[in-house]
Design brief:
- By secondary structure, this protein is of the alpha/beta class.
- It has helices at residues 16-27, 37-47, 55-62, 64-71, 80-98, 119-127, 135-149, 161-177, 188-195, 216-222, 268-271, 281-295, 309-317, 337-345, 360-365, 372-385, 402-414, 463-474, 478-486, 492-495, and strands spanning 2-5, 33-36, 102-104, 109-111, 153-157, 182-186, 209-210, 250-253, 256-257, 277-278, 299-302, 324-328, 348-356, 388-395, 421-426, 429-430, 441-443, 452-455.
- The chain has a six-stranded parallel sheet with strand order 8-11-12-13-14-15. The protein has a five-stranded parallel sheet with strand order 2-1-5-6-7, with helices on both faces. It has a three-stranded antiparallel sheet with strand order 16-18-17, with no helix packed on it.
- β17 (441-443) and β18 form a beta hairpin.
- α6 (119-127) packs across α8, α12 crosses α13 (309-317) and α13 crosses α14.
- The two termini are 40 Å apart.
């Protein structure tokens, strides 16, 4: 089995989904080859000559190899300005490689003429793989791997819209050169597509099998194997662990899928009906210990939508021996300074927190299940314990107006010393959200694969007004602008643990 992670997504750590599938295949005695096309494709672009007509572009191209090497060493992360310059210059080379037809970056791929939410455009990408910027790479690499490994089938892990066009270009190439080779397509984005009640498969004849949710069981069945165990240790051994753009190997690990709260009205997890499943805490701790021994990571990244209180307590009581970070819900546990200090001693550098709003009425309308008093106490406790926070805010939800948005501004300002980083987002209504049934909705994007719908805000707080508030008021507050400037350029939360409080750890 050949498993491929396609371009383009942030290349800071290996694809955990592929490693999970590889572990299941290995556990059943099946051969498997992992190809991180995202990383390989990016490195191919950076090594290719690109036109550079201005001084900045020539400098960026000249120092591309040097900046790439620097991003893999801890020294660069001790100087925020040097880091930002290195990332900006490296990203400039990628932008130049994209030319006039692509909006290409280290973290994104956007074609000006083809849309990843239109099935016909994805099929066009498959019919004309030679038009894809990564064609010179995969036209040479895929035949080489397929000839060497002779797999029974090829699987693609498609998780983000930024990967969709490249994925279908690669599928189209495989089908044109190896027409008898079966193609399996899974991943987070595919799961979202298939969860839509109006889904009608437009890819029949091109993609042989579409898989929703965890792919271990379906993949084993396609390969003629009965699943003998529910859990296998992820297998990262065939991935280029030293090649990612980070100061050491970041080990991604998911202890659960779905969300244990699963009540927030705006959440795609709830809208898509994704169930919550979690491994027992002792199993998680044992997995992490084994993976650390095998891969020698510099940082552990917990991928859970929200690390459960039980796992937080398990990590505090049984430190993994390396630094770690992840997403957590604000809970009474995090208001306990002594517990937060035990988390810090266990290696916790940073917690990502989904606050969403600094207005209690908005939080209640979204069924967040938290109080601002609890959030305030948690931020204070984490600050005292020395744990950085990456706070996520969401503007434009149906219960919010500019009044409530200004309450969020006031809350952030009041707690700015305890908020290390901040992520700002404008609300998108999931097509399957229960709220969409009671609002006047319209097509958000023109595309049959769109996951979101536009809506007429019941209180008149439309997207244009939200963006105006963020750009003209929220971001311009001197305290908030200082927090925003700390955010690592392009890599954001993936590199933020290396810059706790704006300084390298």
């Amino acid at each position: 089995m050949l498993l491929i992670y396609p371009p383009m997504a942030k290349p800071c750590e290996p694809p955990a989904g592929l490693a999970q599938l590889a572990g299941a295949l290995r556990g059943h005695g099946l051969p498997r080859t992992l190809l991180d096309g995202n990383l390989e494709g990016l490195l191919f672009l950076l090594a290719s000559p690109v036109p550079a007509r201005d001084t900045w572009s020539r400098r960026a191209c000249r120092h591309a190899a040097e900046n790439l090497a620097a991003l893999r060493t801890p020294g660069l992360y001790r100087n925020v300005d040097r880091y930002q310059r290195a990332v900006t210059d490296l990203n400039r080379v990628v932008e130049l490689a994209g030319g006039p037809d692509l909006l290409l970056s280290l973290a994104n791929y956007q074609d000006k003429s083809l849309s990843p939410i239109k099935s016909e455009d994805l099929l066009t990408a498959a019919r004309h793989p030679e038009a894809n910027i990564f064609y010179p790479w995969f036209a040479g690499r895929l035949p080489q791997v397929l000839s060497e490994e002779n797999p029974a089938m090829v699987g693609f892990s498609l998780n983000y819209l930024s990967q969709a066009l490249c994925t279908f270009a690669m599928i189209g190439f495989i089908k044109s050169c190896f027409p008898r080779l079966e193609v399996v397509l899974g991943g987070g984005l595919v799961t979202s597509w298939l969860s839509n009640p109006s889904w009608r498969n437009p890819f029949a004849g091109l993609v042989d099998h579409l898989v929703a949710g965890p792919g271990e069981g379906p993949l084993l069945a396609l390969l003629g194997k009965r699943r003998e165990a529910e859990h296998h240790l992820p297998d990262y051994t065939t991935l280029p662990l030293a090649g990612y753009l980070a100061p050491g190997f970041i080990l991604p690990y998911a202890a659960s899928s779905g969300c244990y709260w699963n009540k927030c009205s705006f959440c795609p997890e709830k809208a898509e009906g994704n169930p919550y499943t979690a491994l027992p805490v002792p199993q998680v701790l044992d997995d992490i210990a084994q993976l650390i021994a095998r891969t020698k990571p510099a940082l552990l990244h917990l991928l859970d939508n929200a690390v459960s209180p039980a796992l937080l307590q398990g990590l505090a009581a049984n430190p993994p021996g390396i630094n770690w970070y992840g997403f957590a819900r604000v809970s009474p546990l995090l208001t306990d300074v002594d517990f937060c200090r035990s988390l810090r001693r266990s290696g916790c550098l940073m917690l990502k927190l989904g606050l969403e709003s600094g207005d209690q009425g908005v939080l209640d309308a979204m069924d967040k299940g938290i109080s601002l008093a609890m959030v305030s106490a948690a931020l204070t406790a984490l600050k005292q314990a020395g744990i950085a926070t990456y706070v996520y805010l969401l503007f434009g939800t149906p219960a919010e107006t500019i009044t409530e948005a200004r309450h969020t501004l006031d809350f952030v300002v009041a707690h700015h010393e305890a908020i290390t980083f901040v992520n700002l987002a404008v609300f998108n209504m999931p097509v399957r959200s229960p709220d969409a049934q009671s609002l006047q909705v319209s097509d958000f994007y023109e595309g049959d694969l769109s996951l979101y719908t536009d809506f007429s805000h019941p209180l008149g707080w439309q997207r244009q007004k939200v963006r105006h508030f963020l750009d003209r008021e929220f971001k311009r507050h001197p305290v908030i602008s200082a927090i925003i400037r700390r955010d690592p350029y392009l890599f954001t939360s993936n590199h933020a643990p290396f810059f706790r409080g704006g300084k390298s750890d």
